[in-house]
What we know:
This protein is mainly α. It is 54% helix and 0% strand.
Amino acid sequence: MPSSSSPTPASSRPATPTAATGVPCPKGWFLPRYGAGRLERRNIVECEDSAVYARASGHPELVDCLLTMAEVEWEHEQYFRSKVTGHPLLRLFPLWPAPPPRERIRGSFAEAGRAASREPVAEAVRG
Ligand SMILES: [Fe+2]
């Protein structure tokens, strides 16, 4: 008879907590994707701000690359947003503010020389 300190044989353990309970586990896929999405949202603004600073510091040659990076971060944010949208744990972890439409990244920079994604945008405005 195994002692009480013996580990449970792997074959008798469920593969994941989700498999054992039927409830999505925050330690599973949700939290990494949720955290990545929030991070990507901030990255959009940081790349836009970097483009503003590059131009202001006399490095306009960096602007296009930085705005391209902001657009790529926008796509990453959309990917992670799509992965967590509708998940029941969003009741505990509210969805981060949506960025403006992707076209606004270059549009706002050209028109006003500022970051378009600093302010959250209502879902109805997004393209
Ligand atoms: Fe990214």
